[in-house]
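Troubleshooting log. The previous structure file for this entry was overwritten by mistake, so regenerating from the original sequence record. Sequence copied from the archived sheet and checked twice against the printout by T.R.
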Amino acid sequence: MTDAPAHVHEFDWPDRVVIGTVGPPGARTFYLQARAGAQIVSVALEKEQSALLAQKIDEILDQLRTVEGNRFSVPTSTPVELVDNDPLEAVQEQFRTGTIGIGWDPTTAQVIIEAHPLPADDDAPEEDSLDGIAEAESEMLRVKMPVGTARAFTQRTREIVDAGRPLCTLCGYPIDPDGHTCTLPEI
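Regenerated output below.
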């Protein structure tokens, strides 16, 4: 059983929700950032978490389109008016994300993202403690976004993830800005 977080950063109808990066390719830090009015929350993610988040949201939206009698108008692509190519706003990292939950709220026709922080080393459950399974979290981020915004979010996220270092055509590994030593597999 997990204790409820002490503080939930909640964005029910955010003005903006995006994935963005800080730093040069090869040393980028990925952030999930949500803003409503003057409230801005940024949580750090791994590149792989960002890519998987976009993939899973697209899967939810695509699945909703196939539901017979679906009363929600789920776009197949990003509505032009929702494209957001602006950089992140002032980034102050709230926490580094450990687990991410994704859901659907049919009452508001919104995709829900819940980001939970990585547990601190001293919060890690002890192996021989039965009570150690319950892990207290100090905070979490919950963002709800309508389907059009969710499509725009996934498109931007894919573009951000793909904008990293180019891949070597021989070995498939990223090429560092200061050079690349290619190790071809033996034949």
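Residues 47-66 form the longest helix (20 residues). Archived copy saved in two places this time.
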